[in-house]
Amino acid sequence: MKKVPLLARLAGYRVSHALRTPPKLPVNLTVSVTYSCPSRCATCDIWQKKVDDLSVDEYGRLFPTLHKVPVWVTLSGGDQFVRADLDEIVRLVRTQIEPSIVNIPMNGVITERIFQLLPKIAHHTVGSQLVLNLSVDEIGAAHDEIRGADRNFEKLLLVRDLIHDLKKTYPHVVLGVHTVISKLNVDRVPEIEREARALFKPDSYIAEVAENRVELKTMHKDITPDPADFRRAVAHLSNTIRGNRSGHPVARLVESLRIEYYDLAARILEEKRQVIDCYAGWASAHLAPDGHVWGCCVRAESLGNVRDSGYDFGAVWLGAQADAFRESVRAHACACPLANASYTNLLLDPRSLVRVSAHMAGIGGVSGAATDGA
Amino acid sequence: MYGDDRVRDTEAARRYVDRVATRFGAKTVLECPLPREDAGNEMPRVDMVVSFGAPANGAGWEGTLRAFARQADKLVVVVVGNPDRIGAPPGERVNGGTLSLAPLLWEVGRVREHEYLCIPRIVSILGRLRSDSVSSVALHGPLGAAVRRSARLHAFVVDVAPRTPQARRRLRTVEEAARKESH
Questions:
Q1: How far is the C-alpha of A236 from the C-alpha of A239, rounded, in Å?
Q2: Closest partner CB to A169 (pick from B107, B114, B167)
Q3: Arithmetic mean of pLDDT over chain B
Q4: What is the rounded average pLDDT of the residues B139-158?
């Protein structure tokens, strides 16, 4: 399966989606290793959830059943670094799944544990690209306030230095900066992006909208920005990308996907519908810390628990609950701009791919919807 | 016998170590392993530990370096024959190249910088057309590959000072307790 080119595999998901045939295992997998988190973010209450996390041994039984299909594995939380055995989990991901990309979003709070584990994680992931995304929602004390963590920004700068040092001996390490755009910071996105780029010198900068997610226990929170405000913010980000295009083809493709994602996310907020078909439940999946398999973390509906299936991911993935979830997504019963699933959806949508190609070719100028002061 | 005389006697390696010592203010230096005449003496605490040569010298090198690194207050400098060099002698070749050293170096401390030494003149000239120095160019790209494949030596500077504010606080507490005890 691993030998099949990605685009051919994606075509398989389209066929399965169209013909209602059982899908292959997901190409994009998010593994939440814990809900525990020392941060008390204004945009997230995941820390309130307490479950029995899967152990390293359990992951060791589960991952081989994915048959090395996932290409992109995100290790998420809570704060993953709460787990002292995170490096072992990463080692299993690399050896048993062999993804091309391992992505770890990080809040940088448990600095000492990060300094202890990150070099080991970098070593374990040789052969994949390791993307370390630092969460930067504001600059300085304002960041600490949004994230509900004392001196968080100061700690992020320490972790930034560590990652830049790691890149010297581990060239597969990529430093990203990730901003959650909420009502709390939407008006300052241009400044946040500019200052974050200057301070962190990241290889990539990405932003996502704060939304109501069952996983994060934020269904009651008024955090999602007004669609017009979000449109202005992402127009700025797209213009920044257009104004600083990379000459490297892969980097240019990623930038082009990002421009397309920002527009898609804004349209979903504005139109409140699935603007393009969603393939959560086909191409992307989420594994909760306690073994529940979800189609996505926005709905966080259990398709079954791997603890009840002898740690066989496929048995849950092809079960009746999973079929019901897929049917509901296919019927457009939901719509969200979740970045992780959206990037896969873009790759599966021919019209989006045409626009991505146009972005790559530099067709389509700087949008007038935003100015630096937006 | 773990020391590698060929590396130690290379002028570029010596110059590099001196440069690092000056830059980081390291006044006392200990060579790993102890020179034969000092073997058996108790190892002093020093600012900087230097190791010339690496895995080719024997399986015990890792343990020796760990033990020596504990004596360093500031830095550990490791200079090895570049195993990625085309034509490197079999004794210098290591699976995974110098990357295979990285876990040990990161265990000892924090790898602050690395530099290729003894780069052929033609590669240096090509590099200067693009930047001031090619010795620590990124490993990507054709120039990086040329440096990686031609440099005779590869040097690493490992910062062994406490890495985090918590670790620094802990060290201060231990030092204060030791001071009180001595009074």
A1: 5
A2: B114
A3: 77
A4: 81
In chain B, what residues touch A122 (CB-CB under 8 Å)?
Answer: 102, 106
pLDDT at B142 over 90: no
How many angstroms separate the CA atoms of A368 and A238, rounded? 11
B164 and A158 within 8 Å at the Cβ level: the answer is yes
The answer to whether the beta carbons of residues A358 and A364 sit under 8 Å apart is: yes
CB contact under 8 Å between B156 and A169, yes or no, is: yes
Contact B171, B153 (CB under 8 A): no
Contacts of A112 in chain B (CB under 8 A): 163-164, 166-167
- Residues B111 and B105: beta-carbon distance below 8 Å: yes
Q: Which of B103, B113, B166 sits opposite A123 (nearest CB)?
A: B103
Q: Is B19 exposed, middle or buried (0-12, 13-18, 19+ CB in 10 A)?
A: exposed
Name the β-bridge partners of A292.
Answer: A305
Query: CA–CA separation, A13 vs A347, rounded Å?
Result: 11
- How far is it, in rounded angstroms, from Cα B157 to Cα A199? 24
Q: Which residue of B has its CA nearest to A248?
A: B141
Tokens representing B66 are 């760990």
pLDDT tens for B65-114 read: 888 888 899 999 998 888 788 877 666 655 556 677 888 899 989 998 88
Interface of A with B (CB under 8 A): 111-112, 115, 119-120, 122-123, 126, 158, 162, 165-166, 168-171
Helix or strand (DSSP H, E) at A197:
helix A189-200
A169/B106 Cβ within 8 A: yes
Q: How many residues are there in chain A?
A: 374
Over the stretch A81-110, which tens digit does the pLDDT of each residue have?
999 999 999 999 999 999 999 999 999 999
Task: Give the pLDDT of residue A246.
Answer: 75
Q: What distance in Å separates residue A50's CA from the closest CA in chain B?
A: 28
Chain A residues closer than 8 Å to B105 by CB: 169
ipTM of the complex, rounded to two decimals: 0.76
Residues whose CB falls within 8 Å of the CB of residue B149, separated by 6 or more in sequence, listed in order: B84, B85, B86
Phi-psi category of residue A221: left, alpha or beta, with phi > 0 → left and psi -120 to 50 → alpha? beta
Distance, in angstroms, between B136 CA and closest chain A CA?
A: 9
